[in-house]
Each structure stands twice: as C-alpha cells, then as structure tokens.
Design a protein that fits this description.
Layout: H1 5-18, E1 28-30, E2 38-43, H2 47-59, H3 69-82, H4 87-94, H5 99-103, H6 111-124
Antiparallel strand pairs: 1-2
Keywords: DNA recombination
Organism: Desulfoluna limicola
Protein name: Tyr recombinase domain-containing protein
Length: 130
C-alpha cells in the first residue's frame, strides 16, 4: 500500500528516536504491570490502537457507536475510488482476494457515478453531429 510522504516522514522521525537494535517490530508490545521489560518479539496488541482511537473519538465528541479503526480503512478505500484510483489497485492495497469485495466500497459513494456521468458526456460530446 502506498504510504503518503508526510506519514513516511513521521515514521522516519519516530524510528530515529525510538529504534533499538533488538526491536523486531516498529511498534512492539511493551511489558505490562510489574513487568517493565519490553517484549520486542511481539507486535503491539490490536486493542492498543483501538483504545487510542476510541479515546480520540470520545475527545472529539463523536457520538456514533459504530465508528471504529476499521471505519478508517473503509473511508480510505472509498476516498481512493472517489479520486479515480483503479479498483484493481485499491483491491491490492486493501489485500482483497476478490475484486467483488473491493467493489462493495462503490455503494458508499455518489462521486463515482457523478464522475462517470461527466466522462460519458465528454466522450459522447459531438457524436452524431458530423
């Protein structure tokens, strides 16, 4: 999946200040409770970013119940399709085996159909006037 340049720069800055030669993961699990040692051979648990997202959502005053980290994934795919990125490319970025799975994102947007109408009108413009 392509990584925006700004995100890449943030991750590079993080890596420079937080890397340790024993880290297997960029965001390793940390010891909990009395165990302060870093567990570098395990990835960060899924619950960690989910908890951070939930806290940020509450702080922002977002009251919708079904807004999750996974919602961001859906938004990302939908925005890519709206921007005209090839459905096959989005399929690859999202890790979908089937294009049908990716095509489910099309129902979330009207921009795609609006853009299609513009393209059709441009292609057909002038046809039959000759």
């Amino acid at each position: 999946m392509p990584l925006p340049n700004e995100a890449l720069q943030v991750l590079r800055s993080f890596w420079v200040t937080h890397k340790k030669p024993t880290f297997t993961f960029t965001f390793p699990a940390r010891g909990r409770g009395n165990n302060k040692a870093s567990t570098t051979d395990q990835p960060m648990p899924v619950s960690t970013p989910q908890g951070v997202f939930r806290k940020a959502k509450n702080t922002a005053g977002i009251k919708k119940r079904r807004v999750t980290v996974h919602t961001l994934r859906h938004c990302y795919a939908t925005h890519l399709l709206e921007a005209g990125v090839s459905p096959r490319a989005v399929q690859s970025y999202m890790g979908h085996k089937s294009l049908e799975t990716t095509m489910a994102y099309f129902h979330l947007t009207q921009k795609g159909s609006e853009k299609a109408n513009q393209i059709i009108n441009e292609v057909i413009k002038g046809v039959g006037r000759e």
